[in-house]
Amino acid sequence: MNYFDNAATTLPKPKSVVKEVSKCIRHYCGNPGRSTHIYAIKASEEIYRARESVAELLNLNSPESVVFTQNATHGLNIAIKGLVNDKIDVIISDLEHNSVIRPLSKAVNKYNGSISVYNSDFELEKAISPLIKENTRVLISTLSSNVTGKVMNPYLLSKIAQKHHLKLILDASQYAGHLPLDLSKCKCDCLIAPGHKALFGLQGSGILVMSADTNVDTLIEGGGGYDTLNTDMPHLLPERFEAGTPPTPSIVGLRCGIDYILSTGQENISFKLDKLTKRAYEVLSAINSIQIYGAENGIVSFKIGNVPSSITADLLSKNGIACRSGLHCSPLIHEKLGTVNGGLVRISFSYFNTVKEIDKLYKVLKSECK
Amino acid sequence: MRGTIITLGSVTYAIKCKKLLNKHGIKSKLIKVDPGLNENGCTYGVEFPKESFYTAVMILRQENISYKVYRD
């Protein structure tokens, strides 16, 4: 099976991930931060090591600002519900996923606030500035659409947020591991990414990078293994947002995935994803009945005439090609593209895909479109 | 080792402290301080040789790491 659904979750994972996760669950996966025997200490140290790897990838000074979450949705819920806690206006892009839209809608409805949507086709300052109202306090933006692959500039978003004194939440779900990101040059309040996509970790892992001076309320409270007599969650990051037993094997896997990216070179990965995207765009463009709606950053979305995307995806699956069809949990972009009826077929690459696999996709679609 | 023990805010900071001190040649060990001996229950600490106390404190202050001396 050719796997082209990496925007959903990457498959396969690097061998180093498989090896170390297996070692963890066989040999050292105690409950970190609870006991003082070798298994608990080793688990605690491996989790700290994972924070250091994230810090290295994103050029952060302090590994302690890395909070581990279950996935990006969990991280986004913490950030959004922690920062949207009054009658305020929040600006989002027209590319947002339901992992932003749903918790934001709930928070805004609770406090009788409002949501303004900026057009991602326009230059960022021109798109965002006219939307700013007296009570606008937060800017949330994806850094890359999970439908079209369109990439937004995190450094510009940061400048705009600072200029207008807005809190900034960045969703790096389709960006982290695809493109270099230097957080020393991009001030944001919260940056979120899942561990199981281009960071090559396991499902059940994610990162929330939070600046120490961002005042975000906790979403979940519980045990942390120390300070037991205190009925409040700890004040310090990261434990403040990590109640309960962490998913140690998933975090270990995430660390190995990130170390794979660091040793391969983020630039090399970006280059290959770009090459695969261009090849896919080239071959699909050569088929008359295919309309391409987006081709960027490892993602290509298309449809064949008026054929519902699910039918095309089923056909591809029968021919050994895995992809995703439908609305991809991103309603706004599909409304904008006029593809709500029928949806789009999305093929999405990882560093492990090849040009040969794309050529097979072309042959299958060419044959179907005759 | 019966050295100096300092307590840190969390297991994360205790590990950070241990790694930092080890990096500067101060042999350190992660320990858990029992409840009843700390205001809010168990906490994590780092133990290192007494003679390294002033060097260790300087390193922690340079890195802005808060600590409390539990046993000197």
Low-confidence stretches of chain B: none
Helix coverage percent of residues of chain A? 25-40%
Mean pLDDT of chain A: 96
Would you tell me the structural class of the helices and strands of chain B? Answer: alpha+beta
Structural class of chain A: alpha/beta
Strand order of the largest sheet of chain A: 2-8-7-6-5-3-4
- Beta-strand content bin of chain B: 25-35%
Inertia-based shape of chain B: globular
**DSSP strand (E) fraction of chain A?**
15-25%
Spatial separation of the terminal alpha carbons of chain A: 23 Å
Can you tell me about this structure?
The complex is a heterodimer of chains A (370) and B (72). In chain A, 39% of the residues lie in helices and 16% in strands. Chain A is built from eleven helices and 13 strands. With 72 residues, chain B is α+β, with helices and mostly antiparallel strands. Chain B has a four-stranded antiparallel sheet, covered by helices on one side. The mean pLDDT of chain B is 89. Classes of the chains: A alpha/beta (370), B alpha+beta (72). The A-B interface holds A 32-33, 35-36, 41, 44-45, 48, 51, 63-64, 224-230, 234-236, 238-239 and B 9-13, 15-16, 19, 30-32, 35, 39-44.
Characteristics of this structure?
heterodimer; A: 370 residues; alpha/beta; seven-stranded mixed beta sheet; four-stranded antiparallel beta sheet; B: alpha+beta; globular
Give a short overview.
Chain A has 370 residues and is α/β, with parallel strands linked by helices. Chain A contains 11 helices and 13 strands.
Break the fold down into its secondary structure elements and pairings.
The complex is a heterodimer of chains A (370) and B (72).
Chain A: E1 2-3, H1 15-28, H2 38-58, E2 66-69, H3 72-83, E3 89-93, H4 98-111, E4 114-118, H5 124-128, E5 136-142, H6 154-163, E6 167-171, E7 190-194, E8 206-210, H7 248-264, H8 266-285, E9 290-296, E10 299-304, H9 309-318, E11 321-322, E12 324-326, H10 331-337, E13 344-348, H11 355-368
Parallel strand pairs in A: 1-11, 3-4, 3-5, 5-6, 6-7
Antiparallel strand pairs in A: 2-8, 7-8, 9-10, 10-13, 12-13
Helix pairs in contact in A: 1-7, 2-7, 3-4, 8-11
Chain B: E1 4-7, H1 11-23, E2 29-33, E3 43-48, H2 53-62, E4 68-71
Antiparallel strand pairs in B: 1-3, 1-4, 2-3
